[in-house]
Amino acid sequence: MEAGIVGLPNVGKSTLFNALTAAGAQANNYPFCTIEPNVGIVPVPDPRLATINRYIETKEVIPAVLRLIDIAGIVKGASEGEGLGNKFLSHIRQVDAILQVVRCFEDDDITHVDGAIDPLNDIETIETELMLADMQTVESALDKAKRSARTGDKEALARVALLEKCQRCLDSDQPIRSLELDEETAKATKGLGLITAKDVLYIANVDEDDPLGEGPLVQKVREYTAANGGAVVPVCAKIESELAELDAGDRLEMLESLGMSEPALAVVARAAYELLGLQSYYTAGEKEVRAWTIHKGDTAPQAAGVIHTDFERGFIRAEVYHVDDLVAHKSEAAIKAAGKMRLEGKAYVMADGDVCHFLFNV
């Protein structure tokens, strides 16, 4: 799954991206320093992997990962091609969710594109540009759908109705994600490629002296998300970039001195994972203990298909237990002896924390 990091120029996007991916490079004080989107892979922190490895010895432990796209700064007029607008917007359309970095720090050496630090204005600027871009997309698609609907085609008529609903939403200055849609309609809406249909996680980039985000600027963002949906995670990108360069011992010492239990970026990765509606299940053996990413609600065959499409196509059944069962019984043999190892078929809906062995035949 992919999440795109967006924001106005000079809000700390690239510093955050580099810290998340431990790339080590630093963002420049220049509005368009990221012309092509950078791509990074971020492991999703998961203590259950260590728990499994405590009872099942293995050669390798592999966490789930989140694919991050660092998208260059958006400016007012991006929907009309200002800055590098249309190119950036096309990159955003391709991701599954949006991580919007909002500047909540003061620094005279780093200019703000609008000349003042106002996180709500920043959010409004980006939201407006994305809605304007969606309006153009809907208008173009609606014209085509109406022409097709003249023949009485049911699918075209349904598409017209959906597009008109989206148009009314955007005309009322509301993002598409604010619409209440049933599962089928939501799936159809996703196929339209609308940017404001994507969920948003707001990352408040804070001052070094406020790593927990207790200041008034972050509070404004929290109040905004409480009223408009979404979630907010405070992060000091500068601190996180320093932490990323330290070894484990020094990192722990620095975290303790800041009153933090873990890097804030671990919270970001988990929050993004949750935002995308994802969960993990595990496979465990002598070769590797591994977390696999699936959507909440996926069935056992769909989960098996993440490993290999042959597993889904030839799925027979799965042996399943939970990580908690391993903690309670200490080994898979003991889990079986206690009757906690379940045989599940094609209709089984996976639970977060399941450990599986799949039986298949192709």
Write the SSE topology.
Layout (H helix, E strand, L loop, with lengths): L1 E5 L6 H8 L17 E6 L3 H9 L4 E3 L2 E6 L14 H9 L3 E8 L14 H31 L4 H18 L11 H8 L9 E7 L9 H13 L2 E5 L1 H8 L3 H11 L5 H12 L2 E7 L3 E8 L4 H8 L1 H5 L1 E8 H7 L2 H6 L4 E3 L9 E7 L2
Parallel strand pairs: 1-4, 1-5, 3-9, 5-6, 6-7
Antiparallel strand pairs: 2-4, 8-9, 10-11, 10-12
Quick overview:
Helix content is 42%, strand content 20%. The chain is built from 14 helices and twelve strands.
Structure description:
The protein contains 14 helices and twelve strands. The radius of gyration is 23 Å and the shape is flat. 42% of the residues lie in helices and 20% in strands. With 362 residues, the chain is of the alpha/beta class. The strands form three sheets. Strands 2-4-1-5-6-7 form a six-stranded mixed beta sheet, with helices on both faces. A three-stranded mixed beta sheet has the order 3-9-8, with helices on both faces. Strand 8 and strand 9 (288-295) form a beta hairpin. The model is unreliable at 23-35 (pLDDT under 50).
